[in-house]
Write a structure and sequence with these properties.
Layout lengths: L7 E3 L2 E6 L2 E6 L10 H13 L6 E6 L24 H6 L2 H16 L7 E6 L2 E3 L1 H8 L2 E5 L3 E3 L14 H8 L1 H10 L3 E2 H7 L4 E3 L4 H14 L2 H14 L4 H20 L4
Parallel strand pairs: 3-4, 4-5, 5-7, 6-8, 7-10
Antiparallel strand pairs: 1-2, 2-3, 8-9
Helix pairs in contact: 1-3, 5-6, 9-10
Length: 263
């Protein structure tokens, strides 16, 4: 971990920036980086605090687990001090409940911005909200001890922190349904074979492997990476001919930029 001063360090989240690379670390290993509304607000703040020249963001968790999911305090009648409990949310109107959940989701959305590439370095447990946070990133490098699980359904809830769409996109509808409905663990080998993870390595090699991947991502020109990410993000929602047109438009912008010719 770099010794640079953190840009943000609060509520279990630390953001450190080193040139074109930022590292967001979950910093409560004693509780297996369990999540809370305060942590989600800090994650959203980290996204807003990113300097404009950052190109790659690495997400990691201190300790043996990436994140064991929502802090169990959420399931107590009182919930978190100063936060609406599940009971409070249930008693509120639909609009109020929607606004609360939308606020929580902000911690999970900015990782998909087209101007950055995000990499989750995942070890140990990544359960529920932890699984969905890893899914928020573009790429996932996992340790051989990783255990993904979506436990919300078994608790009578649904995954609501933006994880359902990327899960289906990565592993397909049938496998995504089975993973969510059973709440079972997905190991490193299955994560790679199903497309859920890009790489699986020994736990001792995780940091070095992520560092090498970041270097490779930074080797290409930034604007080309941004255009390519945007093309790939929109591909599923376009027809073949629409994607061809998007490719032509993007390539035209790149060629004009390289030639120094304005549009």
């Amino acid at each position: 971990m770099t010794s640079l001063d953190p840009v943000l360090d609060k509520d279990g989240v630390r953001l450190v920036v080193d040139g074109e690379t930022a590292t967001v670390t979950l910093t409560n290993p004693a509780r297996r980086n369990a999540q809370s509304p305060a942590l989600w607000r800090a994650l959203a703040e980290a996204g807003r605090a990113l300097p404009g020249d950052v190109r790659v963001v690495v997400l990691r968790g201190e300790g043996k687990s990436f994140s064991a999911g929502l802090d169990r305090q959420a399931f107590t009648p009182e919930g978190f001090p100063g936060e609406p409990s599940f009971l409070d949310m249930a008693r509120g109107g639909d609009a109020e409940m929607d606004a609360i959940i939308a606020g929580y989701q902000e911690a999970f959305t900015w990782w998909r911005r087209s101007d950055i590439v995000t990499v989750a370095a995942v070890q140990g447990h990544a359960i529920g909200a932890g699984f969905q946070l890893a899914l928020a990133c573009d790429l996932r490098v996992v340790a051989d001890d990783v255990q993904f699980a979506m436990r919300e359904t078994s608790l009578g809830l649904v995954p609501d922190l933006t994880g359902t769409q990327p899960l289906v996109a990565l592993v397909g509808y049938a496998r995504a349904l089975e993973i969510c409905a059973t709440g079972r663990f997905v190991t490193a080998q299955e994560a790679v074979s199903s497309g859920l993870a890009n790489l699986a390595v020994d736990r001792e090699q995780l940091d070095d492997t992520v560092r090498d991947l970041v270097a490779a991502l930074l080797a290409a020109p930034r604007d080309a990476v941004i255009e390519t990410k945007a093309l790939l993000q929109g591909a599923a929602g376009r027809t073949f001919d629409e994607q061809r047109a998007a490719e032509r438009a993007a390539q035209g912008r790149r060629l004009r930029d390289l030639a120094g010719v304005g549009e």
